[in-house]
Amino acid sequence: MKKNKTLRIAVVIMVAALCATCILSGTTTLARYAATAKGTGSVDVAGWSILVDPGGQNEIDIAIDDDIDFVVDLFDNILCKVESGQEIHTDPAGKLIAPGTYGYLGAIDIKNASQVYADIDVEIEVSTPWMAAGASGITGLTFTPPLDASGVFKKSFANVAPGATVNFTATDFMWEWVIGGNEAEDTAIGIAAAAGGVTFPATVTITATQVD
């Protein structure tokens, strides 16, 4: 009798344990292996900067502001032809041109300070606003290479590498006021200059574009 009672108690305990196991398995997730990973990445943007040094002045970054004005000197070096050769024309009143003088544009250095390749164009426009009777300006003022029909000379630099500098030098653009072109017109211009001054402005436009 005592043996049966002991067996009955053992069976009850086993059943209770199985019931508890079923209840827990319905409400609790069993342990298992797991792993999680997260990655991040970044990339820098290539810089864009075009530095212009117009004849020994401070460098100008035209990428920052395309409306920046800088001084260029079309008549940086004025020479005059004389029988003994060439001599630098100097004048206490400043740089003056006259029939028989010639010269060239002052050097311009352009650096591609970007991190990409660039195409760079330099355009020079020369205006002769003084109007003689029936004339459009100084007919004896010539340019080498010649200006196009709109009065512009253009030089292009293709595929300028990052960090590279291109130079617009004296031999790239020269001018000359030849003697004997139109003496009457030249004389009239000289008289007008004595009365109030005659100027011939030049505009240099530098354009840089990222290479595709």
Describe this structure in words.
This protein has two helices and twelve strands; from the N terminus they run H-E-E-E-E-E-E-E-E-E-E-E-H-E. It has one domain. The chain has 212 residues and is of the alpha+beta class. The strands form three sheets. A five-stranded antiparallel β-sheet has the order 4-3-5-11-8, with no helix packed on it. A four-stranded antiparallel β-sheet has the order 2-1-6-10, with no helix packed on it. Mean pLDDT is 76; it is low at 131-136.
Count of alpha and pi helical runs: 2
Order of strands in the sheet with most strands: 4-3-5-11-8
Low-confidence stretches: 131-136
Ends distance: 101 Å
Q: How many domains comprise the coordinates? A: 1
Regarding quaternary structure, what we see is: single chain
Number of strands: 12
Approximate strand percentage: 25-35%
- Helix and strand string, N-terminal first? HEEEEEEEEEEEHE
* Largest sheet, strands/sense/barrel: 5 strands, antiparallel
Q: Approximately how much helix is present in the residues? A: 10-25%
Choose one word for the global shape.
rod-shaped
- Structural class by sheet pairing and helices: alpha+beta
Query: Average pLDDT value?
Result: 76
Q: What would you report as the Rg, rounded to the nearest angstrom?
A: 42 Å
